[in-house]
Structure formats: C-alpha cells, structure tokens
Amino acid sequence: MPHIIIKLATGKSEQQKVQLAEALVKDVMSVLNCDEKPVSLAIEEIEPKDWAEKVYKPEILNGRGKLYKQSGYTM
After folding, report:
1. Mean pLDDT of 61-70
2. Is 17 helix (H, G, I), strand (E, B) or coil?
3. How many angstroms separate the CA atoms of 4 and 26, rounded?
4. CA–CA distance, 25 with 13 (Å, rounded to integer)
5. Which DSSP string corresponds to 19-69?
6. How far from 64 is each of 27, 49, 67, 68, CA to CA, in Å?
7. With 90 as the cut, is the pLDDT of residue 2 above it?
8. Which residues participate in catalysis according to the annotation?
9. For the chain, N or C: smaller number of CB within 10 Å?
10. pLDDT (tens digit, 9 = 90+) per residue, 20-48?
11. What is the pTM of this model?
12. What pLDDT, on the 0 to 100 scale, is given for residue 75?
C-alpha cells in the first residue's frame, strides 16, 4: 500500500500536478507490480521562501538515510 508524498514549490498548475500524479502512480504500479487501488498520492505545496526550513534542511540535508535520490543543489 504505497503512499507517495510530493513536496513541490508553489507555482505549478493543477494540470501539471494531475499529470505528475498520474505518471508517478503508473510507475509505482509497474515497478511494484500492483494495481491502482492501494496507491495514494498527496502533493504538498511549499512557498519557495520556506523551502530551506521546511524541506531542504529536515528532509534532504538531514534525511540522507531515507533518500534514494539526492538533489543536485545546496542551500
């Protein structure tokens, strides 16, 4: 029962968010060999001015044990 949480800087359209969700769910179904029913996905929009404190420091910089893909930027 995968649940995906996407943290995204504000400014993307609803259409872009829907397309992203559809693509990610499709990939989860393929990789994990499951159907769509158990997959859920949430998008949390973060103001760019808050990104370092709410996302980068706690989840990227200090979350290395959980990261499967490291970002290519520093703050």
Report:
1. 88
2. helix
3. 12
4. 18
5. HHHHHHHHHHHHHHT--STT-EEEEEEE-GGGHIIIIIIIIIIS-TTT-SS
6. 23, 22, 5, 8
7. yes
8. 2
9. N
10. 999 999 999 999 999 999 999 999 999 99
11. 0.88
12. 87
Q: Give the integer Cα–Cα distance in Å for 31 and 60.
A: 24
Q: Which residues, in sequence order, are bridge partners of residue 9?
A: 46
* Percent of the chain topping pLDDT 90: 81
DSSP category for residue 8: E
Q: Which domains does the chain have, with CATH numbers?
A: 3-47 (3.30.429.10)
Q: Which two tokens stand for residue 45?
A: 């929009």
Residue (of 26, 25, 27) closest to 40 by Cα position:
25
Question: How distant, in Å, are the alpha carbons of 2, 35, 55 from that of 44?
Answer: 17, 24, 11
Taking Cα atoms as reference points, which of 55, 66, 52, 49 lies closest to residue 6? Answer: 55
- Determine the pLDDT at residue 65: 86
Residue type, position 27, single letter: D
